Protein 1
Amino acid sequence: MTDAFDDLLSANRSFAESFPYRDLEGVARAGVAIVTCMDARIDPLGMLGLQVGDAKVVRNPGGRVTPQALEAVVLAVNLLGASRVLVVPHTRCAMGSATQEQMRARVADAAGQDASWQRFSVVDDQRAALEDDVRLVRAHPLVPDTVEVGGFVYDVDTGLLDRVL
């Protein structure tokens, strides 16, 4: 039986033949946690010179510190070896290019059905959202004061990070 996942399963079997990560533990070896966008132009480990096993990576639309992302950060800094947290939205992000209503209309057009009930993590002001997100992580009672939290913007055209906070 052929299906839409055959190419990926075949690639996975090749990957598994020489699987290099069997001895890795679940901690962040470099002490890093990253919250960033799901955008395919972002290589969260590569942009920081890190490798698999070095960091905990949380990805979502817009790279926002959502309740789920904050949960992951709390786990990373308390149980998984992270002592530095980077919050990293990026340039030319779709979540910063539309209002809630516009995003709902785009999705409705693509899906062919009503999307007026769906909430999307759009941002009116990326810098203000980044400031809020960094403040949220820093203020969380389960994120120790010893954890360094920084806000950065990743440029999808140059690959450079700009430290904002």
Protein 2
Amino acid sequence: MMTQMFSAESTTDEVLNGIDLSGKRVLVTGVSAGIGVETARALAAHGAEVVGAARDLDKARTATKGIALDLVELDLASLASVRACADFLLAKGQKFDLVIANAGVMACPKGTTKDGFETQFGTNHLGHFVFVNRILPLFKPVSRLVNLSSAGHRLADVDLDDPNFEHTPYAEFTAYGRSKTANILFAVEFDRRHKAAGIRATAVHPGVIATELSRHMTPEIVRQVSSSTPGNQSAPRQMKTIPQGAATSVWAGITAPAELVGGRYCEDCHVAEIAEEPGVRAGVHAYAVNPERAKALWAKSEEMVGERF
């Protein structure tokens, strides 16, 4: 049982206060900037052995200078890179207590990954889908997966008939919303499949933070998403610092009881409730935690990547 409540203002170090992670191994993807770097720093500072994955290792080395961690190369927009990284970790055979699927892209121009998938769905969801499932043998019997999602999931459900926008007009934030919904649904189905073995999964919204993730946010895109969100006249959510933004990841991965967060969507260091009202930025949309939708996405994802898990 938790003895302390945390909030949107809580930081990583506050969430981990008094917790000794010595002997714990953690994998964090996307450790070249922002929340990923802070997540790795906080976990390492509390004694965890951290493995950080990044597409650009030189950038990651610079960003994590002074943090005790091992780096591995992982380009989520290339299934060849994803499989090579997974194979490398499997060959080493060292198991993990926690995997945080943190890396991602947001609102980027229309494009495709090296395997021909729409960039955001392919990078944010399919890359992690293959990577996490491939390293499943490295999850300890009592371990967790934390998928970084977003309140942006409220912008769009997944489209299982046209995931690559082959027949649908492309919009940056529609694509982002689909990928963030997929991150939640992946956690829901992963948790269902593996909770009997003591492996739990959750998805988290870090909050609104100024990081490199927003580098594609042109004024035109901001106007587009604002005008396309009904009821968007509600007050904007308060910006978080990076340590506040990373807090929900470590809270869900370390501090919160596994039974509380397993198969759920978390924000501001608590489990979110279903919230369907247009324009509301808090809470989770029902389609993102629908177990049948999660199973359908899993099957579609396997079909797309040509691999069964």
